Amino acid sequence: MICTSLGGKDLRQILDILESGCTDVAEIRLDSCTLSDEDISYLFAQTDVPLIATCRIAVAGEEKCLHTLSLAIEAGARYADLELEAPAPLSRKIQSLCHSCGTQLIRSFHDFDGTPDKGLLEQVVQRCFRYGADIAKIVTAAHDAADCAAVMSLYDTAAEPWKLIAFCMGVVGRDTRLECLRRGSPFTYCALKDTESTAPGQWIAAEMSARLYGEQEGFNRKGIRVPASKSFAQRAIVAAALSEGISHLGGYSPCDDSEAAIRVAQALGARVVKKGDTLEIKGIGPAGKPVGLKSLNTGESGLLTRLMIPVLAAINGEDFRIEGEKTLLRRPLAGAAEIMASFGVLLSGESVPLEVRGALIPGTADISGKGGSQLISGLLMALPLCDKDSMMRVDEPKSIPYMFITLDVLRRFGVRIGSQMEGDTTLLEQQDWSGCEQISFKVHGGGSYKAADFDIEGDWSSAAAFLVAGAIFGSVEVQGLDVKSLQADLSIIDLLLDAGACVSSLEDGTVAVRKAPLEPFDTDLNNAPDLFPIVSVLAAFCPGESHIGGVKRLSGKESDRASAIIEMLTALGVEASIDADVMTIRGEALSTRLACRRLLQGGSFSSHHDHRMVMALKVASLGAESPVVIDDEQCVGKSFPLFLEIFG
Predict the structure, then answer these.
(1) Is the preceding peptide bond at 286 cis, omega within 30 degrees of 0?
(2) What ranges do the domains of the chain cover?
(3) Which of 64, 67, 110, 552 is catalytic?
């Protein structure tokens, strides 16, 4: 990425430059800009461009340096640059403040007279990190090619080159300002125009941008609106169909899986009318006369299938057959037979189509959550319709947030279920579900669903593709999202922050993401497996090794996603492997790929008829050297029919 140094400016001038979109990162020279204390606080708090706060002691003095840097850090500066020679008391104060405010500290060394030998340069780098640096910046004056080679050699021994910025001043060192990006530097520096150059050999922003980005198109979009969450929609449609009275579900947007849920509701006997983006559903409740279906088609939806097996077993009154289509026919229902047997229901096989025999019998059961949350959600919806109470203890639960989505939907329809989690209490208090070893649900029988009116929230799974595209290639604003959602894929926000992207949210439900220097990350997607494909693409543009846990959760999706992701990454030219439950991806920053002319490889790719794979491939195509051709793009209709049109 390119950092433009801004000095001698006032607040309005700086804001105009940042709003023009001509800079990736900006260094604000607090020692020369005419900014009041209020201006500094406003600037570093309001802008979504990554900013570096810099104040040279030799120009401003220690007191002003401490004061202005502190204001910027407390306001939200992404980076603070402090000279390596800063006095120890000043250094300790800035280091402590950066740590408490989440600002990355750059310790910088400048030699305006020449270039020390390689051994001394390496000692300087070590000193930077010893004195609290998150990033070490080494800039020297080059008199010949040997000086340039000595500085560039620092990258050869750097374990994490994305934490090193090293280049040379002077005409001889001009090319090192771009070469450092090839070596892995998170960004390099330039001047806005010739008259503002601060050192010989410094590039002008427009020239460097043209050299680095060339014809590479960014992804800069506003006003994107994603469809309604099908996780919420399917649960709500089934609940409304079971309810007494007429429910109104606003914000509905059609997709294959949600339309399948409507057909299921109608098969149960509910009346469904679409009025704009609102579903009006007259339910069949309260439970009375058995439904009496011989068979039920759940389309291609694994969730709908797992919801309806226990629900229909509770209300149908006779044995029935579950049928489906497309990828659902080859997706295993792992552990379903054993779980349903705990409540007196027998399944004829491990995949659709299958015969379901016996009525749902309430009671107490210990069941495994290894296979995911969907069948458990179905039981939570079905057991209240039985005549007696039930207790369900789920060991080793996965996709825990989806269970709470079910409880939230049930609550809206007048059904309340008690829950208790057991495990690492510290992790649970932090809402880190990896610490949960067991969840117990106490379900009161003899209940009934009551009609409800509410809006279905936007889908974080669909939003993730756009948010990742913005984080890598430019900027994006996605509307209609709930940042307090129970959806598991809301975790994409924390993940993007961990990777270094700039993320902000507005009160109107708009989430904005902007590119910034990215870093490798470690995450566990056991509770959000739908994020795996798009997060793997994010990892491909994060320098170093990223590790994504939860691989075993991918085998029962629309495709064998673990194999499909490895196949995709390998074909794109990204090094990736799987060890047990963890996928390791070795990525490179976009700026490094561009500087080295080492973009992702294009070609023909299989979606494996998986909508999530199509979305991931479309985002990856933005960083490919040639077109990415996907065999079945239309399968995105399963969750997001307008994705291709909106993505462009």
Answers:
(1) yes
(2) 2-214, 230-455, 461-647
(3) 110
Tell me which fold the domain 461-647 belongs to. Answer: UDP-n-acetylglucosamine1-carboxyvinyl-transferase; Chain (3.65.10)
> Contact at 8 Å (CB) between 532 and 539?
no
Please, what's the b/e burial string for 202-223 (b: 16 or more CB within 10 A of its CB; e: otherwise)?
bbbbeebbeebeeeeebbebee
The residues, any chain, with a CB within 8 Å of residue 159's CB and separated by 6 or more, are: none
**Residues sharing a CB contact under 8 Å with residue 437, sequence separation 6 or more, in sequence order:** 395, 396, 422, 423, 424
Structure token digits, residue 338: 């054993």
Give the CATH number of domain 230-455: 3.65.10.10
For 53, residues 6+ apart whose C-beta sits below 8 A from its C-beta are 28, 30, 44, 68, 69, 72, 73, 77, 79, 80, 81
Give dist(CA 615, CA 638) in Å, integer.
12
Residue 173: CB atoms within 10 A of its CB come to 27
Do 2-214 and 230-455 have matching folds? Answer: no
Integer angstrom CA distances of residue 177 from 118, 216, 519: 18, 20, 20
Segment 228-273, tens digit of pLDDT: 999 999 999 999 999 999 999 999 999 999 999 999 999 999 999 9
Q: Is 609 a catalytic residue?
A: no
State how beta strands 188-191 and 2-6 pair: parallel
> How many residues are listed for the chain in this entry?
648
Phi, psi of 332 (to 5 degrees): -70, 145
Q: Which of 137, 163, 282, 618 is an active site residue? A: 137
Using CA of residue 456, residue 479, residue 72, residue 91, what is the dihedral sign?
A: positive
**Which candidate, 118, 111, 119, 62, places its Cα nearest to that of 91?**
62
Query: Which of 182, 200, 179 minimizes the C-alpha distance to 191?
Result: 200
Closest residue by Cα to residue 341 from 323, 354, 355, 360: 360
The whole-angstrom separation of Cα 323 and Cα 337 is 16
DSSP 8-state code for residue 370: T
E-state strands within 483-617:
502-505, 511-514, 522-524, 544-549, 575-579, 582-587, 603-605
- Beta-carbon contacts of 351 under 8 Å, excluding residues fewer than 6 positions away, are 329, 330, 331, 332, 333
Q: Is 110 a catalytic residue?
A: yes
What's the mean pLDDT when you consider all of the chain?
95
Q: For residues 291 and 263, is the Cβ–Cβ distance under 8 A?
A: no
* Fold assignment, 2-214: TIM Barrel (3.20.20)
pLDDT tens across 18-46, in order? 999 889 999 999 999 999 999 999 999 99
Amino acid at 286: P
Q: Cα–chain-centroid distance for residue 112? A: 42
Token couple for 385: 């319709």
The per-residue pLDDT for range 49-76, each reduced to its tens digit, is 999 999 999 999 999 999 999 999 999 9
* Predicted TM-score (pTM) of this structure: 0.92
Predicted confidence (pLDDT) per residue in 138-192, tens digit = 999 999 999 999 999 999 999 999 999 999 999 999 999 999 999 999 999 999 9
Q: How many CA atoms lie within 13 A of 68 on its CB side?
A: 27
pLDDT band at 557 (very low <50, low <70, confident <90, very high): low
Instruction: Using the predicted structure, report yes or no on whether residue 559 has a pLDDT greater than 70.
Output: no
